[in-house]
Amino acid sequence: MKKKIDQTLLELWLGILAYGVVFEIVLLFFSRNPAYSIGLWIGAALAVAGAFHMWWSLDRGLDLPEKEAVKSLGAQNIIRYAVLVTVVGVLACTDFANPIFTFCGYMGMKVSAYLNPLIHRLRAGKDEREISDGTAL
């Protein structure tokens, strides 16, 4: 496994955290229920962990032959969604956190993926036209 975190993964994490902060500000404007905020940050933590797991499984799976790679990536995808469904299910059965806001927090991974080119440009700055991984802007 690589020792250095991939720049795209780092940018995805930054986007997830930025989404969580913006969502939290809007959430606090409308409601001060702590279960909503706890649910949101549980979802954001799941998104960060899910992004890492996706990066790890792709990094590992792409070194395998085609048939094993398809099986491995499919199994890893099922594991990721099983964890999400289990956590949301447990939260639905308890009053600890709101499962809907947990799902909203998890959707930060999707929003971050769409905003990745913007985050990439912001990290590169105005003067730099390239990031250390060689990606040109």
Description:
- By secondary structure, the protein is mainly α.
- The chain has one domain (7-124).
- Helix content is 77%, strand content 0%.
- The protein has helices at residues 7-30, 34-61, 66-93, 99-106, 108-124.
- Helix 2 packs antiparallel against helix 3 (66-93).
- The protein is flat, with a radius of gyration of 17 Å.
Keywords summarizing the entry:
single chain; 137 residues; 5 helices; flat
Summarize the structure.
It contains five helices and no strands. It is mostly helical.
Order of helices and strands: HHHHH
Number of E strands? 0
Mean of the pLDDT scores?
Answer: 88
Work out the count of structural domains: 1
Q: N- to C-terminal separation? A: 28 Å
Report strand %: under 5%
Count of helical regions: 5
Shape: flat
| Poorly predicted ranges | none
What's the main sheet like? none
State Rg. Answer: 17 Å
**Assembly state:** single chain
Q: Which percent bin holds the helix content?
A: over 70%
**What structural class do you assign from the helix and strand content?**
mainly alpha
List the helices and strands and how they pair.
Layout: H1 7-30, H2 34-61, H3 66-93, H4 99-106, H5 108-124
